[in-house]
Write a structure and sequence with these properties.
alpha+beta; Aminopeptidase; 5 helices; 29% strand; binds coenzyme A
Length: 151
């Protein structure tokens, strides 16, 4: 089965919200941040998604979700790798995320646990950080390598 990963469009929003709800992840704010979301499609069906908010040079990875019937086939990995590659082109220095359930999974991509006191203000002021995730969520960070330009 072929997999297509492409930026989200407004017509995708209902399917994206349904996938987030089914994955027990926050839906708030996705509509406003749509240009920063990637979607994965298999046989015309939304199989997965991930979002990257950019705040003052810091990235916030959010809403990583794969349809339950498609999990374990590498779609999550493909989405996270693609969004991290895009983070480099947005001149993001670090990408943060909050997760209740997938801390171990994100270590595969170089994320490490960070104390809340060490989280920069632009990330702490996001709606996701302040409201969407409960205080028990783990906060993780990954540095983004700068791309060499002009060669
Ligand atoms: C986390 C999630 C996005 C992974 O997507 P996926 O497409 O199944 O992931 P991949 O196929 O790329 O990777 C599968 C591997 O990751 C492991 N894995 C999947 N979810 C995991 C988790 N929550 N914790 C630890 N490992 C996990 C699988 O066991 C599998 O291991 P293997 O390679 O040794 O067989 C998906 O399980 C999901 O949508 N979960 C619910 C929503 C969620 O928790 N999102 C993250 C918070 S933002």
């Amino acid at each position: 089965m072929s997999l297509e990963i492409r930026p989200a469009r407004s017509a995708d929003l209902p399917a994206m919200e349904a996938l987030l709800q089914a994955s027990h992840l926050p839906v708030d704010g996705v509509g406003e941040e749509l240009p920063h979301f990637l979607t994965a499609w298999q046989d015309g069906r939304l199989a997965g998604m991930v979002g990257l908010e950019v705040h003052d040079g810091f990235g916030l990875l959010r809403s990583a979700a794969v349809d339950i019937g498609s999990r374990g086939t590498g779609i999550g990995r493909a989405l996270v790798e693609r969004v991290l590659a895009e983070a480099a082109s947005y001149r993001v220095r670090e990408v943060y995320l909050l997760t209740n359930t997938a801390e171990r999974w994100f270590t595969r991509f170089g994320f490490r646990h960070v104390d809340r006191g060490d989280v920069p203000e632009p990330i702490r002021s996001t709606a996701e950080y302040r409201e969407l995730c409960p205080a028990s969520a783990a906060v993780m960070v990954r540095e983004i390598e700068r791309r060499r330009e002009g060669r």
